[in-house]
Structures are given as C-alpha cells and as structure tokens.
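Lecture notes, continued. The same structure-token format from the folding unit now serves as the input rather than the output. Read the line below as a description of shape only.
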C-alpha cells in the first residue's frame, strides 16, 4: 500500500495539520503493469471552506518501473478531479472581518497587499487576535467563536 499524506506546517515549523490523504493498494499481484484501488479524503479547506469529502476509485495500467512520483502524480490528478465533483457546498463562515477591531482588519489588508509591518500591535489588538481556546484538532481561536475555524466542530463549553 502507498499512503500519501498532505500536511500544512504553519510558518514551516508549527504543528503539522493533515488536510488530505490518499491510500493506494495494488490489486494486480504486483505485475509490471498494475491496477490500484485508491481511496482519498480531504478535510475542511480553510481557504474555500469546502466541506470534507472522501471518494474511492481505480487507477489502471500503471507501469511499476516508473518512479513512485509517477504514481503519486496520477493519484493527485485523480483526487483533484474527484474534488471538483464535490459541488459548491461550503461551511458557514465563523469569523468575518467584523469580528475584529477595525485597526486589526486594516493591518490584515495591508499585509495581504504586501506592506511591511511598521509598528507593534496594541494590547487590545493582540487580545483580539490571541487564541484563547484550543479545539481537539489543535487549532487555537478566540473563546467567543462558536465553531472551530479549522475543522468546523462546535465549541463545547
């Protein structure tokens, strides 16, 4: 079996968070040209807020003398096609810019436009941004939010 795990590592050193995985099993007795059963799943997408999904299928006629990356590429292409079939259903937004002080929103806009940060956040701004609750998935966020922005779980109080 080949397992492909896709993780996000915040800032390159934070706690990794799995966002998707694929598992492929050879069903052709390890022949030179093999067929694979594939199972893929993707969690909540924090950019598009697409709902989690999973799918099962086949990759047929893979030449096992190729690099493993050729099979990974086929699996990724198959998974991307399956992701497109999932439709446009989205999770609801749990924190919009209105949830933050205007000065924080303005800084977010500047950062998104590539402007450097030229001064420190105020104590009030830091309080608005400071995670105060940690979900079982490891994501921190303000206590006033009712749902985890990463996995969508409701906050148990």
């Amino acid at each position: 079996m080949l397992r492909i795990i896709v993780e996000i590592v915040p800032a390159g050193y934070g706690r990794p968070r799995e966002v998707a995985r694929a598992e492929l099993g050879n069903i052709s007795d390890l022949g030179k040209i093999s067929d694979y059963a594939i199972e893929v799943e993707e969690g909540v997408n924090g950019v598009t807020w697409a709902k989690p999904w999973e799918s099962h299928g086949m990759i047929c006629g893979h030449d096992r003398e190729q690099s493993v990356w050729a099979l990974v590429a086929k699996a990724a292409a198959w998974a991307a096609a399956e992701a497109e079939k999932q439709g446009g259903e989205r999770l609801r937004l749990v924190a919009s810019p209105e949830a933050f002080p205007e000065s924080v929103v303005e800084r977010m806009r500047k950062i998104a436009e590539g402007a450097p940060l030229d001064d420190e956040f105020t104590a009030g701004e830091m309080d608005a941004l400071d995670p105060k609750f940690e979900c079982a998935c490891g994501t921190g966020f303000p206590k006033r939010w009712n749902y985890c922005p990463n996995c969508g779980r409701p906050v148990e109080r």
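Point for the exam: Residues 68-84 form the longest helix (17 residues).
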